[in-house]
Amino acid sequence: MWVRNTLNSAKSDAGQRCGPRRSSRSVAVDEVRSKVGSPQGTIVREKLTGEQAEQRKPGRPAGRAGLLAFYYRASRDLGEVLAAAPADTPAWTWSPDQSVGFIRRRQAREALIHRVDAELAARGRTRMDPHLSADGVDEVLRIMYGGDVPDWGTFTPGSDTALRLQATDTKDVWLVTVGRFTGTDPSDQVSYDQPRIQVTSGPAARAAAAVRGNAADLDCWLWRRPSLRPIDRSGDPGLLSRFDSIIAPGIT
Question: Cα-Cα-Cα-Cα dihedral of 16, 19, 21, 26, to 10°?
Answer without folding.
Answer: 10
